[in-house]
């Protein structure tokens, strides 16, 4: 039974291999510091944080998240360590809450590797603090205990680290904040929370592998977090956890399955007021399920590796058993146990992936145009919509353990940040196989496909696309936009064209911001285009002077809030002459690629997901057909 601690209370720890689970409701940074008998942190090498997540005996998450799991092995700590402090801090400079008083009270629980709770603590009475020492694991007379601390710091990470005696506290805090900002920039934005939504339910079955240690698990809503879901639990496609308030029309319900068989998946089996919303929530449920079951598998493999290493170390540490038949037998037994644990975990993962694949096979054909691939037959019956959808598909995501299962990457509308389509060759094996010209062409083709989808899913006249092509080198990629007539102006070329487009959009942002702040939206100029605006920038930074670069940064930061969005097609190496000046620009944009690349992270566990763009099939006329209908509808409505 889990002991519920209050501030200052301690509790003995019955084992040395532990898991510390955090549930905060909003993304927070989790870390740990190692201290001597006086609690002093000797240096940065005794701090585990997202930029350096692993220390001997301690492993923390690599990015900010609403839920965390920290792995602790007290026997593996360096000599001289008597205390382990678990730290929480709010991310800085990412637009989130700036004080814990604005969040639900964080809950933290220490568990064994089997998920059984040992001691839990709800951190209450926080207000202006932006960092807090949550728990302390400490050793006294060779006995380890846990103490509820709850000491907050209004000065943030730097003040907290300085209080623990770290000389370079400010420098380390800045490094941690930079790493967190970079991690959040590459993370797919999680959907806004819905009342009563607790994720999908996993039902316990026999033969489960070890619980995941590297990331959070789905939590029931309300109350204390439960023991981690065993990876042996199969996905329950009834998933009542997705239910919120009852919609006006009932969602499809999966028919009951025969005893011992998984439920038959049904498209739209999720909460929501419309079918589109239910499908959106279902896709995100699949995304989360795959992230968590893969985390459980990877954790089980890590556990098996660690166990085998310990057993082999015990054999080698004793000279009497180091050689001979007994040693050979011990080694063989350790390897056999390792193989058994890994195979058991793989069986469970394969079962979960098979169930998710079955769900994807019924969901994919049911998706509306905004969520569908370009080869989906739904585009053959396309009609210009009368209202904006919840989201649109940017591409597909998959993990190396389940390459055959593609999860649609759905991005909420209106866009909350711009897009950067990376035309560089760094960091991607697929990109390295292409020459620079071919990669740039593919990047622009990707931009045009995304722009076409945005034009197609918005009502007629409510989305306008501008293009900057300084050298005019993207004419072939831009052909679907230019020949259909959906562009109100031809692509801007030359320095004069670049400056004119940027000046017009910058002025629009200024005017709308002033109108909103003064509460005088009706005072906007009558000729102002009130539609959402998308600016496609090709081949940056060629043809851009310092003023144009400043305007681009301004549009990336301020534009999305007033309906002006940026889509950069650029190779960061081409802009290296600007140095760190452009770092805020790249961070403000969601990086995607024209070829498969494993650079995106999920918001729950932080896996590196391989992204593949959503492109029209080679030789298909679907883009031309859809854009022609959009242009025709605009003319009919006088746009």
Low-confidence stretches: 194-248
The secondary structure category is alpha+beta
The percentage helix is 25-40%
Biggest pleated sheet: 12 strands, mixed
Number of strands: 23
Give the overall pLDDT as a whole number. 84
Rg from alpha-carbon coordinates = 27 Å
Distance between the termini: 66 Å
What form results from the Cα inertia axes? globular
Strand content: 15-25%
Number of helices: 11
Describe this structure in words.
- There is one protein chain.
- With 639 residues, this protein is an alpha+beta fold.
- The chain is built from eleven helices and 23 strands.
- The strands form four sheets. Strands 1, 2, 3, 4, 5, 6, 7, 8, 9, 10, 11 and 12 form a twelve-stranded mixed β-sheet that branches. It has a five-stranded parallel β-sheet with strand order 18-19-20-17-21, with helices on both faces. A four-stranded antiparallel β-sheet has the order 16-15-23-22.
- Helix 3 packs antiparallel against helix 4 and helix 8 (494-518) runs parallel beside helix 9 (546-558).
- The chain is globular and about 85 Å long.
- The chain starts with a strand and ends with a helix.
Provide the fold topology.
Layout: E1 3-5, E2 10-12, E3 17-35, E4 47-48, E5 54-55, E6 58-59, E7 65-73, E8 83-89, E9 107-112, E10 117-122, E11 131-140, E12 143-153, H1 156-163, H2 169-185, E13 202-203, E14 234-235, H3 275-317, H4 325-363, E15 391-398, E16 407-412, E17 418-422, H5 429-432, H6 436-457, E18 463-468, H7 475-484, H8 494-518, E19 532-540, H9 546-558, E20 564-570, H10 583-588, E21 589-592, E22 597-601, E23 608-613, H11 622-636
Parallel strand pairs: 1-10, 17-20, 17-21, 18-19, 19-20
Antiparallel strand pairs: 2-12, 3-4, 3-7, 3-8, 3-9, 5-6, 6-7, 8-11, 9-10, 11-12, 13-14, 15-16, 15-23, 22-23
Helix pairs in contact: 1-2, 3-4, 6-7, 6-11, 7-11, 8-9
């Amino acid at each position: 039974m889990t002991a519920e601690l209050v501030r200052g209370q301690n509790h003995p720890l019955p084992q040395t291999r532990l898991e510390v689970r955090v549930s905060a409701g909003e993304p927070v940074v989790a870390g740990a510091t190692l201290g001597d008998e006086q609690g002093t942190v000797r240096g940065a090498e005794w701090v585990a944080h997202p930029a350096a997540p692993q220390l001997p005996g301690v492993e923390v998450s690599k990015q900010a998240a609403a839920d965390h799991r920290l792995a602790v092995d007290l026997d593996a700590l360096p000599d001289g360590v008597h205390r382990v402090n678990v730290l929480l801090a709010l991310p800085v400079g990412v637009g989130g809450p700036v004080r814990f008083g604005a969040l639900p009270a964080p809950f933290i629980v220490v568990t064994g590797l089997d998920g059984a709770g040992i001691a839990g603590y709800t951190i209450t009475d926080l207000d202006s603090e932006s960092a807090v020492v949550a728990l302390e694991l400490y050793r006294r007379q060779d006995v380890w205990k846990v103490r509820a601390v709850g000491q907050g710091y209004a000065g943030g990470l730097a003040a907290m680290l300085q209080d623990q005696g770290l000389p370079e506290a400010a420098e380390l805090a800045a490094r941690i904040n930079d790493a967190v900002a970079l991690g959040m920039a590459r993370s797919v934005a999680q959907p806004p929370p819905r009342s009563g939504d607790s994720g999908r339910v996993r039902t316990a079955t026999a033969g489960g592998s070890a619980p995941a240690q590297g990331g959070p698990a789905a939590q029931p809503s309300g109350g204390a977090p439960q023991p981690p879901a065993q990876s042996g639990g199969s996905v329950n496609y009834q998933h009542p956890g997705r239910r919120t308030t009852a919609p006006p029309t009932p969602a499809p319900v999966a028919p009951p399955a025969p005893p011992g068989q998984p439920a038959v998946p049904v498209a739209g089996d999720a909460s929501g007021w419309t079918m589109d919303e239910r499908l959106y929530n279902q896709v995100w449920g699949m995304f989360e399920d795959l992230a968590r079951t893969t985390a459980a598998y990877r954790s089980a493999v890590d556990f098996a590796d660690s166990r085998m290493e310990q057993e082999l170390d015990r054999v080698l540490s004793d000279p009497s058993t180091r050689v001979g038949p007994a040693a050979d037998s011990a080694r063989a037994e350790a390897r056999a146990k390792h193989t058994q644990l890994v195979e058991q975990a793989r069986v469970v993962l394969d079962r979960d992936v098979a169930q998710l694949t079955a769900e994807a096979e019924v969901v994919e054909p049911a998706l509306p145009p905004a969520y569908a691939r370009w080869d989906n037959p739904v585009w053959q019956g396309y009609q210009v919509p009368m209202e904006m959808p919840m989201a649109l598909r940017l591409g597909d995501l998959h993990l190396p353990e389940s390459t055959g299962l593609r999860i649609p990457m759905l991005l909420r509308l209106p866009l909350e940040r711009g897009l950067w389509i990376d035309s560089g060759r760094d960091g991607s094996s697929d990109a390295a196989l292409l020459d620079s010209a071919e990669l740039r062409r593919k990047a622009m083709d990707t931009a045009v496909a995304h722009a076409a989808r945005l034009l197609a899913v918005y009502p007629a006249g409510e989305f306008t696309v501008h293009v900057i092509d300084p050298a005019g080198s993207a004419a072939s990629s831009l052909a679907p936009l230019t020949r259909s007539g959906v562009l109100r102006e031809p692509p801007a070329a030359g320095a004069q064209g670049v400056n004119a487009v940027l000046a017009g959009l910058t002025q629009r942002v200024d005017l709308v911001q002033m109108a909103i702040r003064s509460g005088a939206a009706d005072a906007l100029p009558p000729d102002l285009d009130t539609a959402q605006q998308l600016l496609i920038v090709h081949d940056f930074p060629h043809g851009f002077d310092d003023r144009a670069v400043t305007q681009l940064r301004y549009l990336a930061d301020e534009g999305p809030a007033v309906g002006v969005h940026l889509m950069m097609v650029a190779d960061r190496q081409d802009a290296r002459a600007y140095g760190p000046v452009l770092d805020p620009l790249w961070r403000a944009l969601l990086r995607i690629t024209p070829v498969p690349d494993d650079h995106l992270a999920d918001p729950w566990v932080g896996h590196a997901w391989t992204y593949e763009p959503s492109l029209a099939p080679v030789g298909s006329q679907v883009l031309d057909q859809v854009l022609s209908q959009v242009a025709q509808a605009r003319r009919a409505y006088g746009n």
